[in-house]
Specification:
The protein folds into three domains: 38-133, Winged helix-like DNA-binding domain superfamily/Winged helix DNA-binding domain (Arc Repressor Mutant, subunit A), CATH 1.10.10.10; 140-209 and 311-335, Periplasmic binding protein-like II (D-Maltodextrin-Binding Protein, domain 2), CATH 3.40.190.10; 214-307, Periplasmic binding protein-like II (D-Maltodextrin-Binding Protein, domain 2), CATH 3.40.190.10. It has nine helices and 14 strands. It has helices spanning 46-63, 66-73, 77-91, 107-133, 153-164, 177-186, 247-258, 272-280, 324-335, and strands at 7-10, 96-99, 102-105, 140-145, 169-174, 191-194, 203-212, 214-218, 228-230, 238-242, 264-269, 286-288, 298-305, 309-317.
Amino acid sequence: MRPMHGNCIIDSVKHDRSSRAPLSQPRNRKDGPEVAEATDLGADSWAWALAPRLAQFTAVARHEHVTRAAQELGMPQPTLSRALVRLEEDLGVALFARHGRTLSLTPAGHAFRASAERMLTDLDRATESLRADADPSAGKVAFGFLHTLGSETVPGLIRTFRTDHPRVRFQLVQNYGEAMIERLRAGDLDLCLTSPVPDSPDLVARRLDEQKLRLVVPDDHPLARRKRIRLAEAAGELFVTLEPGFGLRRITDALCAEAGFTPRVAFEGEEAETLRGLVAAGLGVALLPPPAVPRPGVAELTVTAPRAVREIGVAWVDGHQDTPPVAAFKKFLLSRRGVLLPR
């Protein structure tokens, strides 16, 4: 079972409220006795039928006067009166008691008003959150990246980007490649840094940089005296690798196959630095990118054949319109082509 992977949001901001667009015209409801669940809303649901009329109902409930409510809503008083009658007919319940030109809520009306105001408040908050996320100067970028890019690369990228965009917020997701691609397709992420660079018709991916992989061996291993090695020379070794599904695991398997062997796996993990520690403990050897900080107990050999590198790229869903902060960060990432990784 996989552990939970990290998510965070940094630098939340407040967003000024502005004018709202008017509600759409109401629709009549003819069938269906129950409220549909949020994931199953459709033209036959109560929410679909009632949502456009909730603001009209709450305005009249607040003023207890149709004319004053119509003036607030900017609509003709007869239109509002007809809408209220249709609402009561659709519900089959009297919401108001009429007293000439004034109205008062019935017990059912009081109960319905409380629910209607909660729904409108939730909608207002959701709308303001969306508007805040799209704010050009202080919006949000949902950004995913590999574990191995979390110690230096991603913090450096965000620090540099925020020099010119200090108020942009980041929702950060650190995970392995396949999981991030799934979240990208699900709409949870705007962009992700991953490897291998995906090749899929529903995604756009751009190669940004490449990273040399090294054969990491214990420092008391016979190969530790070497500086360079052909990968075929490690065919008889036990390997510690990342689990299937991780991009680095697919690259390791492919490189070993190109070198003419299938690696014998002693351990499968989820963190490159965990693997480096297990190599130091003598459990096996590993193909890994360079560490952020040199680790004692291991020797790291340059692989001369086959060419042992992994490409790092940025990916996003094809056809999705970017908010201004996402567009700005995407442009920034693309400008880092060839200089993304520390040298």
